[in-house]
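Researcher: Good morning. I'm working through a list of sequences from a screen, and I'd like to move beyond sequence-only analysis. For each chain I'm collecting a predicted structure so we can compare shapes side by side. This is the next one on the list. No need for commentary yet; just the structure.
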Amino acid sequence: MSFKSSLLATAAVAVGITAVPAFAEGELNLYSSRHYDTDERLYSDFTEATGITVNRIEGNADELIARMEAEGANSPVDVFLTVDTVRITRAKELGLLQSVESDVLEQRIPDYLQDEDNQWFAFSQRARILFYDKTDVENPPRTYQDLANPEYEGMVCIRSSSNVYTQNITAALVAHLGEEAVGDWANAVVGNFARDPQGGDTDQLRGIASGECDIAMSNTYYYARVLRKGDKSMSEDDIANIGWVFPNQDDIGAHMNISGGGVAANAPNRENAVRFLEYLASDQAQEYFSAGNDEYPAVPGVGLSPSVAALGIFRPDAIKLSDIADNIAAAQNILNEAGWK
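Model: Good morning. Structure tokens for this chain:
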């Protein structure tokens, strides 16, 4: 776990660390599993605009949730940020978040990108799409279901079943297609693996570049980052040879992962916490999610960075995130039964 900025004074305990900060009027205590250095600009701009100092602790989402549980009513955290639907929903289910009444958030964040009880809101998105080797794949898959087609036997690189992105896309498919159909799909996809699932999203793209696989699934911001900054493991020709497909454009649309946050149940600086969430929904912050980290804004109409815009226009899946969360357990069972490692 990394400790950055004006960190909370902490003391180690058996489970996690108990923080003892000064609850000053001009402070905000943030627990975040976003690990991007580019977010520094978000925090500094918020402080410059409001005078509110951001004290933050970054770490693994599960560790931060466990820490909030251990701290209980004495927790110093005001805002919890995470990078997937599973963890932010878990925080809500554990009673670690509270409802927020904010006209700004209600008006700017689409309904399907916020919790039905207003306990959390999405602030950025990443499309989970398909990539392929343009030299070797003449007929790339056009839907997530196509990954199960026999013609792609031995061609697919994908992340493990323990990864939240894999769980999320499977849960979304369960919501759309039903458990039986997705169970058949998962079994067939496992049969098309080029290798056992391994590594992160960038490693799937590198698998295409190295020739280990011909088709992969990844969040868009990993590839957009490669377009913007390059990658030491891939040449310019390797990158240019990777094609992409936004799946299911004729029906459900491309699956979206989110980064979101909510106000902690026992937030000592609640007003500052709400102001911070409202700031994250501002045009300035939304543009920076795209420019700084190659993500899609959650607020409609906000401009995209060149690296993100280069991927093109597409139809996203507008499924309510709560429907995905409701099907995570079923998705995990399906992946386990399919032998998806």
